[in-house]
Design a protein that fits this description.
- The complex is a heterodimer of chains A (about 400) and B (about 190).
- Chain A is of the alpha/beta class.
- In chain A, about 40% of the residues lie in helices and about 15% in strands.
- Chain A folds into two domains: about 10-230, 3-Layer(aba) Sandwich (Rossmann fold); about 255-390, Rossmann fold, CATH 3.40.50.620.
- Chain A has a five-stranded parallel sheet, with helices on both faces. Chain A has a five-stranded parallel sheet with strand order 10-9-8-11-12, with helices on both faces.
- The radius of gyration of chain A is 27 Å and the shape is elongated.
- Chain B has about 190 residues and is an alpha/beta fold.
- Chain B has a single domain, classed as Rossmann fold (3-Layer(aba) Sandwich).
- Chain B is about 40% helix and about 20% strand.
- Classes of the chains: A alpha/beta (about 400), B alpha/beta (about 190).
- The interface between A and B is large, with 44 and 47 residues.
């Protein structure tokens, strides 16, 4: 597994003269077994072939044969032994890495908690020191280890992860690469024994590795990367051709998605404008939905309002969805699920008449049918202004 | 009175109640059929981040006098290096709050309002496209606009020559410094 060269002897040609901060790249995944470590090693090989001095600072193969094979040919630093309560534990040897001073160090499992008695409590603190020494680092992380997502992941999967790292650690990474795998493909890998040994497969399938858990975690991982990208997104407030081009091209974060329910009447434009402002603040995409009754005929005024709505949606960069259905709630639920909406904005309803008064109001029906989706009723400002007047 | 009679009377009363509930909107009367429906449409186009208060007030006066709907229209310019159907978020970030402010002010005065957004290679092009889609009875524009920002004198001449609507051009005046901007939006927007 270890290369022929003595890993403790730094090549003189590559010794670091300067003390610039190293470059941190993190391979992020939704769960164990997606291939983060494999890709970390693959990149290590590529860098080595490109002539860089690459060393494995810490590798966790978890007994996976293909990971161990991938590590062959890369020099690996021996682990440090720490005795804790009469037990000998192995940890990454930070001092050895700093003494060896490679150009690039591969350090697996960024969220790992070090054994008591180590220099730092957490591995990411070791990594910080390595980076401060001007050594580039490639590391790996599962999304559930991020502090801010811990509760969300627990809620989704029912399993609380104890080893967490502050989000700022990932925020400081120069590069994040998501290792994405479909839940089905990951389960296939698990069943084939590529992730855990045979005796642990059944337990894994019955606990963490459920299709719904993995789907949810995958979404969280994708959103996290999108958010990191969004945070670094170019923003501009200037009006003009170049700036408008940049703003139009700038990718939108996919963390939130707003769905505004509209009808072709003049007041709907106010709802759309407010929904757009909210979407701008959230860095989210905006969809507009009009549920048209089958065979519904529009008056000329309504037709004009519809054209104006479409034009407004287009200028704002919102997507106008028009569906024909008798069942408004079912259609909204369907579109919200399809589009992954996280907020639904509705205007003030027209007063119900007759038996319609006995029906549960639309916002309540939506909240019942769409758990986890925020429903917001946009106030009619003009009415409020007139009320406020003496 | 027999139990059957009481039951029949109760059933009839319930039916009458349901029928009344169906026909009458809650907490109010049915809108009067005698109230004239607004038919005239007054276009109030703008391009910048503020409009002249005189144009706005002129639109309000006319709308009240003619029972008209005021249609504030934000004219967005699509840069030449973008497709004509492009989204224009940067320009909208100033245009939308201003539209909101104008709509709030008009609504609070009881003026029917319908907003529009026009898009073209220039303000005139955006206005031309808007006028191709819809008909307006009056158009109110202010001649005090900075020609680099709003409608130029050439655009105003074009309006007078080509557009089949009554055009009201407000001549420059010292009070044109009074403007309505996006800052006039009431509440959270």
């Amino acid at each position: 597994m270890t290369g022929e060269a003595d890993p403790l002897t730094p090549p003189t040609a590559t010794a670091h003269a300067s003390q610039r901060r190293g470059h941190l790249k993190v391979f992020l995944g939704m769960a164990a077994g997606v291939g983060k470590t494999y890709f970390m090693l693959l990149e290590g090989h590529a860098e080595q072939e490109a002539g860089r001095d690459v060393v494995i600072g810490l590798l966790e193969t978890h007994g996976r044969a293909e990971t161990a094979r991938m590590a062959e040919g890369l020099p690996m630093l021996p682990r440090m032994r720490v005795t804790y309560r009469h037990t000998v534990l192995e940890e990454m040897d930070l001092t050895a890495i700093l003494r060896r001073a490679p150009e690039l160090c591969l350090i697996d499992e960024l969220a790992h908690t070090n054994a008591p008695g180590s220099e730092h409590t957490k591995r990411y603190e070791d990594v910080e020191e390595v980076l401060a020494a001007g050594i580039d680092v490639i590391s790996t992380l599962n999304v559930q280890h991020l502090e801010s997502l811990n509760d969300q992941v627990t809620e989704l999967s029912g399993i609380r992860v104890r080893e967490t790292i502050p989000d700022a650690v990932l925020g400081r990474a120069d590069e994040i690469e998501l290792i994405d795998l479909t839940p089905h493909a990951l389960l296939d890998r698990l069943r084939d024994g590529k992730i855990y040994p045979a005796e642990r497969i059944d337990a894994a399938l019955n606990n963490f590795f459920k299709i719904e858990n993995l789907s949810a975690l995958r979404e969280v991982a994708l959103r996290q990367v999108a958010t990191e990208v969004g945070a670094k997104r170019l923003s501009t407030e200037l009006v003009g051709s170049r700036e408008e081009t940049l703003a139009a091209d700038a990718p939108q974060a996919v963390g939130e998605r707003l769905l505004a329910l509209v009808e072709p009447y003049p007041g709907a434009q106010r709802l759309v404008r407010r929904a757009w402002r909210s979407s701008q603040r959230l860095g989210a995409e905006l969809d507009l939905l009009w549920v048209r009754r089958p065979g519904q005929k529009l008056s000329d005024d309504h037709e004009r309002s519809l054209i104006a709505l479409r034009q407004l949606a287009s200028v704002l960069g919102a997507r106008m969805i028009e569906e024909e259905s008798d069942d408004v709630v079912a259609t909204i639920v369907d579109v919200a699920a399809r589009r992954g909406s996280t907020y639904i904005l509705i205007g003030r309803s027209r007063p119900a008449r007759g038996l319609a008064r006995l029906r549960v109001p639309l916002p309540q029906r939506l909240m019942e049918r769409l758990p986890g989706v925020d429903v917001r009723i946009v106030a009619d400002r003009s009415s409020r202004s007139s009320v406020e007047k003496p | 009175m027999s139990a059957a009679s009481i039951f029949i009377i109760a059933a009839v009363a319930a039916l009458l109640g349901i029928a009344a509930g169906y026909w009458l909107p809650p907490h109010g009367r049915r809108p009067s059929r005698n109230r004239p429906r607004p038919v005239r449409r007054i276009l109030l186009p703008f391009t910048g981040q503020a409009i002249s208060r005189r144009s706005f007030e002129a639109a309000v006066r006319l709308a009240k006098a003619e029972n008209a709907t005021v249609m504030p229209a934000f004219l967005a310019r699509v840069p030449m290096d973008l497709p004509l159907e492009s989204a224009l978020p940067v320009q909208c970030s100033s245009g939308m709050p201003l539209l909101e402010a104008i709509e709030q002010r008009l609504s609070s005065q009881g003026i029917p309002v319908e907003c529009r957004v026009g898009r073209g290679r220039s303000a005139r092009d955006a206005l031309r496209k808007l006028l191709e889609q819809e008909q307006f009875d009056r158009i109110i524009v202010s001649a005090d606009e900075d020609p680099h920002v709003g409608l130029s004198y050439d655009d105003l001449r074009w309006l007078l020559d080509r557009v089949p609507a009554e055009i009201m051009i407000l001549r420059p005046a010292p009070e044109d410094t009074r403007r309505i901007s996006a800052n006039a939006v009431s509440g959270h927007f």
